[in-house]
Amino acid sequence: MKKNYTSIVSLLGMFLLIGVAYGLDIWMDALKQVALTQFKMAAWFLPATLANLLIAGLLMAWLWFIYSRADNHPVVALIYILVGLGLLFYNFVAIALASSLPLPMLLALIPKSLSSFTCAMVAVVGLQRLIFGKTVRL
Known about the structure:
- By secondary structure, this protein is mainly alpha-helical.
- It has one domain.
- 82% of the residues lie in helices and 0% in strands.
């Protein structure tokens, strides 16, 4: 019973983490637009830095949980990989299809958001857990 519980909590944490990163992206973009219209870019840097620190702290807490408490399940690792890679490229493919831009022009935009960093991290953690398969108890 404990194994299923920790796996479900780690998956819920992953979705919560990606949701927070996506919300922070929207919030930072709105702050940036306001700062651009008021010519006060310094007002945007502090909240953006705090958002980066918040998502880094949440990622560290999630990583601590999955490496110290959750057991390794190949299915959960595959879910990490599929969700991470799927959400990483979903927005950019949707933009490319909607605006008729070729995908190579959008590749430079991929690592410029907190949600893309978070999704990439989730995919890498899933790949690591699938390949190595060991859970380290701290």
